[in-house]
Fold these 2 entries.
Entry 1:
Amino acid sequence: MSAAPTGRNWAGPWPKTPGRLLGTGLIRLYQLTLSGFIGNSCRHLPTCSEYGYEAIARHGLWKGGWLTLFRVSRCGPGGSHGIDNVPQTLDGRLTWWAPWRFVSAGHRCTAGK
């Protein structure tokens, strides 16, 4: 029997580098302050802030930040919906000097029914 998660953010192991701590800290600050006012309408599971926290924790501030930015852009009207998890690993073509390639990196939604 596994224990229930202690929070809504990803609790897996991740390196606590300064960039990752900064990124996850900013997302956590958003969750504790503004999310109650402007959040609560995400069209995906996990929510965009949970996705951002996990993406930055797993892939670092630069790559996780781009994944988060493109995920939030898909959340608006006319965007996708459903289950959209953070990719476990990233393709080798996703480099720091080509951030536009991150548009399709995490875009594997499955509609929840």
Entry 2:
Amino acid sequence: MSWQTYVDEHLMCEIDGQHLTAAAILGHDGSIWAQSENFPQVKPEEITGIINDFNEPGSLAPTGLYLGGTKYMVIQGEPGAVIRGKKGSGGVTIKKTTMSLIIGIYDEPMTPGQCNMIVERLGDYLNDQGF
């Protein structure tokens, strides 16, 4: 299965009538493996900050999480595994796998829990597959 298929069929799937706003799968080096059409243009320093927070949990909290120039307030996640961010009525969930970052961006009416479930379920599957 192609990486784009994972984005299109798994990350951008419908849950209770809701969809993520945007999603992507990136390598730890920031290379984009696949993304939805409207995924923001991420900067290398944003990916570096995210990777640093996985290695040193809490390092993004003082400055916020930036993705495509949009600032998210970092909220509770799972140290070393999941980073969650909030901005207004939406937010972002980032799951780190062995080789990749799974990123889902949502807005109301989708709930944070629905976004977490979509992103983390695919992340767990890819971890099981060695990715």
